[in-house]
Each structure stands twice: as structure tokens, then as C-alpha cells.
Amino acid sequence: MKTDVQVAVIGGGIVGASVLYWLAKMGWTDSVLLERRELTSGSTWHAAGNTTYFGPYPAMTPLFAGSIRTYLQAESESGQSVSFHQTGSLRLAATPRELELFHVYESRYAELGIPFHIRTPQEVAELHPLIQTDQIFGAAHTPTDGHVDPTNTTHALAKAARGMGAEIQRHCPVKALHRDGTHWILETDKGSVLAQHVVIAASFWARELLAPLGLNLPLYATQHHEIITENIPELEGLDHEVPAWRDSYSSCNVRQEAQGVLAGVYETEPKFWALDGIPKDFKEDLFPPELDRLMPHLERLIERMPSFAEAGIKQTNNGAMCFTPDGLPMLGPMPEQEGLWLATGFNVGIGTGGGSGEFLAHWMTQGQPLFDLKAVHADRFGNDMTTEEALKQIRAVYARGYQMPDSI
Ligand SMILES: Cc1cc2nc3c(=O)[nH]c(=O)nc-3n(C[C@H](O)[C@H](O)[C@H](O)COP(=O)(O)OP(=O)(O)OC[C@H]3O[C@@H](n4cnc5c(N)ncnc54)[C@H](O)[C@@H]3O)c2cc1C
């Protein structure tokens, strides 16, 4: 194991793998990634893999766009498929105001070179025969996004990074870290690692890992459900995959999964997990499903897509998902902690992890971020937010689901 490196990355989910990959691309190959268990064993393994380009904050769109680009690049460099399904996505307009806002986005997407179309309800019906369009006002359509396999993608990034000289140590939890002169020292069961820079890509574990340094990161875990159905006859008859769709009315995202669909739900009252500390023996665990809590949203989903009610439920994954008080990740250097960088707090880490790795690696190797995006800076919450305040804000941001902001 490398024990004296330029950079150590803690955490082998999609974000840590992406940071390691991009650092290596930018010439920092004297690196090691330390993972507590296996790669992807946090939230990444059970994610739906959606990588849409559409988000309520256009400033974030380059991170989404950079992600698909990164994953396809890692695929071609590593030979490991990321299983990209380019289905495109529809954001349904549940109100005339939403449709108006979608029009405002058009120029932003044009600037970024991302195909973006406003569709009429009739066009939506042609694109997605399962959607009831009589209650919608149209949709924003991004035809070139879709979904990837998050585990394959993490492995593609890891393999490509290794190919450039980076090292990955699995089953190597970092027990503690502290600064000693010009270096960080990371304590593991395999020995100490000296690093000039440390990147914390440890999702909700980062809160406990950095608390001994006097840092108070407002990172908490919520439970998040996805439901996979049995085959739907109309989909079995198609020769292509239908686009993914999302809307504020149901607060759900729905994409095709084999010949059925996979639905993710943002319920009005999120359920937190492990507020007293992440259990030391947490593995690739899922929580028992709680479909009753989701019913108001599933009923609305069924209004939008009646065939969901007819298909049996094949599988339910209720997994842990990290949240920050504003729902955005924490990226960048920590003040007064020289060489300490954050890449944590992701709740859309598949959609943004690839681009975030590039964003952070650029900042670390070139001295400035790839572009100006203060909304994600690691130090924006200060150090004094109480748990009560953080949970209050997370509840609000989680419940907002796919609602659009009042203005852009
Ligand atoms: C049901 C569900 C569906 C989802 N669907 C989507 C989706 O469709 N699209 C999307 O963009 N996002 C989705 N997400 C969210 C997505 O899973 C996360 O945003 C993403 O996986 C976060 O990646 P990460 O690398 O930050 O964290 P993780 O994948 O949690 O990785 C963190 C890693 O750090 C390791 N670690 C922690 N502490 C230490 C330590 N001390 N030493 C060494 N290693 C350590 C952990 O073992 C873990 O492997 C979904 C989440 C859930 C729950």
C-alpha cells in the first residue's frame, strides 16, 4: 500500500471514484483511495442510476452534463461498460407556471449545447404512451440523458484511475485523521498514510469522521425508496425504451427498468436514519419498506401513469441517502484546514458525481474550480448549525421534491 502520497481520497462510492479518476487525468497519480468495505458499498450500489440533465438550478447543469461525459469517457478508457441507457427524460409541467419556467431554461441549455425541447401534451403522449397527458401542460424534454448502472460506472472510473497509476485499498476504513506539520496522517488497520491532500468522499460518514477536528458538517442520512414493478404489457410490445419522467405533482421519478418501471419517491415527511451515529456494523443494508408513507405520492403517480397500478411490485429498495440543509453537495477546500477537501453531501451523486470529480480535481490541481459555482462550496454552512436547524431545512428541501423554484 502507498503510505506517503500527494492525495488520499476517503470513500469509494461513485463520488470518490470520480475524484480519484479526474485527479489522475489531471496528472495527480500519486494517490490512494481508501474504502471501508467494497467499492459502492454506501448509497451507490442501490441507486437507480438516473443521470438527467434537468435540474431546478441551471447553475448546476454543467455538473450533470459533465457526469455523463465522464462516465462514457471512463467506459472507453477502461473497457468496463457503464450501461448507459440514453432514454432521454421528461419533466412534466403540472401547472402553466412550470411550463413558463421551462421556457426560461431553453437559452441556458442552448448555451451549454444540451438538446432541450418544450413538448406539448400530445407530443408527450407520442414519446411516452403510458403517461396520461390530460392533466399536464407540456414537458421539458432532454433527449440525450438517461441512466447508468452505478456499480459498473464506479468500477469503470476506478479501473481507469488505476490504469493511470492511482491505487485503491478496499476493506481499509480510515479510523482517524489529523494534520502533522505539512501532512495529513490517516490511521488505518493497514498502517498510517501520509498525504499532502485529503479528499473526504465519505457521504454521511463524513460528519463523524471530521467531528474530532472541530468541524460540524450538517450531513444527515434519510431513508429513500425506489419501487420496481413486474413487466408492463405495453412496454413489452415496444422496440425501444421510453423516456424517464418526473413531476412535482407526484414528487416521483419514473424510468423504465427491463420491461417494467422503477419509481423513486420524495415523500412529504422524510424519515431520518442514524441520528445518534452511523452503526459501526452498517454494511450494504436496506431498511424495511414503508409503502404506507408513500401512498399519497403513489396515488398521484398512478393518476399520471395508470399502468403502474396494474403491474405487481417486484422489488422495493429503501436505502440511506445523504442530505445537506439545502440539498446540494459540499465541494471544495475547508477553511483553516490546509489540504483538506470535501466531496460529500450528495443526494444526486450519480447524476452529478462525474462532473463534480472534474470540478474538484480542477480546483485542487489548477488552484481554482472549473467554473464559478458558489452554491456548492464546502464552507457555506459555517460551523455552528445545530442538528435541529439542519433537520428542519432538510425536511423542507426533501419535501419540495420536484417542485420548481418560484423564480430562476
Ligand atoms: C433508493 C435510492 C435511489 C437513488 N437513486 C439515485 C439516482 O437515480 N440518481 C442519483 O443521482 N442518485 C440517486 N441516489 C443517491 C445516490 O445513491 C447518492 O447520491 C450517491 O450514491 C452518493 O455517492 P457517494 O460516493 O457520495 O456516497 P456513497 O456511495 O455512500 O460512498 C461513500 C463511501 O465512503 C465509504 N466510507 C465511509 N466512511 C469511511 C471511512 N472512514 N474510511 C473509508 N471509507 C469510508 C463508505 O463505505 C462508502 O462506500 C439514490 C439513493 C437511494 C437511497
Give the gist of this structure.
This protein has helices at residues 14-25, 61-78, 96-112, 121-127, 150-163, 206-210, 233-236, 291-304, 307-310, 349-366, 387-400; strands spanning 4-10, 31-34, 50-51, 89-92, 117-119, 139-142, 146-147, 167-169, 176-180, 183-188, 191-200, 220-229, 244-247, 252-257, 260-265, 272-273, 313-323, 330-333, 340-344. It is of the alpha+beta class.
Which key phrases capture this entry?
single chain, 408 residues, alpha+beta, nine-stranded mixed β-sheet, eight-stranded mixed β-sheet, binds flavin-adenine dinucleotide
Sequence-ordered SSE layout with sheet pairings:
Layout lengths: L3 E7 L3 H12 L5 E4 L15 E2 L9 H18 L10 E4 L3 H17 L4 E3 L1 H7 L11 E4 L3 E2 L2 H14 L3 E3 L6 E5 L2 E6 L2 E10 L5 H5 L9 E10 L3 H4 L7 E4 L4 E6 L2 E6 L6 E2 L17 H14 L2 H4 L2 E11 L6 E4 L6 E5 L4 H18 L20 H14 L8
Parallel strand pairs: 1-2, 1-11, 2-8, 4-13, 11-19
Antiparallel strand pairs: 3-7, 4-6, 5-6, 9-10, 10-11, 12-15, 12-16, 12-17, 13-14, 14-15, 18-19
Bound molecules: flavin-adenine dinucleotide (FAD).
